[in-house]
Design a protein that fits this description.
Blueprint (H helix, E strand, L loop, with lengths): L11 H24 L6 H8 L3 H7 L3 H25 L4 H18 L1 H13 L5 H27 L6 H24 L7 H22 L7 H5 L5 E6 L2 E7 L3 E6 L2 E6 L15 H6 L21
Antiparallel strand pairs: 1-2, 2-3, 3-4
Helix pairs in contact: 1-2, 1-4, 2-3, 4-5, 4-6, 4-7, 5-6, 5-7, 5-8, 5-9, 6-8, 7-8, 8-9
């Protein structure tokens, strides 16, 4: 992964600058991955890149900017993966969750770096070019979500308001931001972040479609639109390929031909880990019967209005 373009026909000085920036980028990426943001120093990065410390500051004004430079590329890769996954999703909720889920998976690999990156995106220096590049990636994500929401409204014969869809997309990113911070802050321990995020996305999408439906004479209720009987939303979470069927009476989670039915509103459990509890169960294809995590189906406080 790199932030640089191929050298092309630039002069020796330009090629030298590109080479230094590439070495600094790689040294920063490796150092942050191995030791975490707080324990890494700019001097360490400079030594690893085989440049003077002052040279590092010619390309990034601070250690935080170095992290932005590195994690912008991580975010770009996550968004590309999410966009690719979403193309194969028919349900609008599972498509939107698929767009943001790679960000959650990425954050789980190094919670500290992900939390610092989110902080710098939100509160970093306004003139930081790497922050601006990161915010442009967030805007791209929100546009992708907006397009999917508008397409879903049109498919249902509802007025497709792009401004309202963009507001909903911003709410999805805000909910995702809070989930990304969980692993580092320790908030909401004992609850499944993926299940919570999925529930929040469903509420946001339901709200957008409800508003669109209210603007159409004789529009149907959001409940009937979001929970058609027998229609499933497929969600890929980690290595688990799941189908979540929301119907009035039950929430059914399927893997292959196996099903576990729960009362409506009950938690589906950990979408990544709790379908199979042990290697033996994984080998035999058995479905666990562990109870749902307390409150796992409830969305993040303050993000559902």
């Amino acid at each position: 992964m790199t932030v640089m373009q191929p050298p092309g026909r630039g002069g020796r000085r330009e090629r030298g600058m590109r080479d230094k920036q590439e070495r600094i980028f790689r040294a920063a990426a490796d150092s942050f991955a191995e030791r975490g943001f707080e324990r890494v120093t700019t001097q360490e990065i400079a030594e690893r890149a085989d440049v003077a410390t002052g040279t590092v500051f010619r390309y990034a004004a601070s250690k935080a900017e170095l992290l932005l430079m590195v994690y912008n590329e991580e975010l770009r890769a996550a968004l590309e993966l999410g966009e690719q996954r979403a193309r194969s999703r028919q349900g609008v909720v599972s498509a939107v969750v698929s767009m943001v889920l790679p960000m959650v998976e990425q954050a789980e690999r190094h919670a500290e770096n992900a939390a610092v990156y989110q902080r710098e995106l939100l509160f970093g220096a306004p003139d930081d070019k790497y922050r601006a590049a990161g915010l442009a990636l967030v805007a791209r994500l929100e546009q992708l979500i907006t397009e999917r929401l508008v397409a879903e409204a049109a498919r249902r014969g509802l007025p497709a308001d792009r401004d309202h869809a963009l507001l909903a997309a911003g709410s999805v990113f805000a909910a995702t931001h809070l989930v990304l911070a969980r692993a580092y802050t320790g908030a909401h321990q004992g609850r499944d972040p993926v299940a919570d995020l999925s529930a929040q996305v469903r509420q946001i999408v339901s709200g957008y479609l409800a508003v669109a439906g209210a603007r159409r004479p004789g529009g149907s209720s959001p409940e009937s639109q979001m929970s058609p009987r027998g229609r499933g939303d497929r969600l890929e979470a980690g290595n688990a390929d799941l189908v979540i069927e929301a119907v009035p009476e039950v929430l059914t989670v399927k893997r292959g031909d196996l099903r576990e039915a729960r009362p409506a509103g009950a938690a589906a459990g950990d979408l990544r880990d709790r379908l199979v509890d042990s290697p033996a169960q994984r080998h035999e294809g058995l479905h666990p019967t562990a109870p749902p995590l307390p409150g796992a189906a409830h969305p993040e406080p303050g993000m559902t209005s």
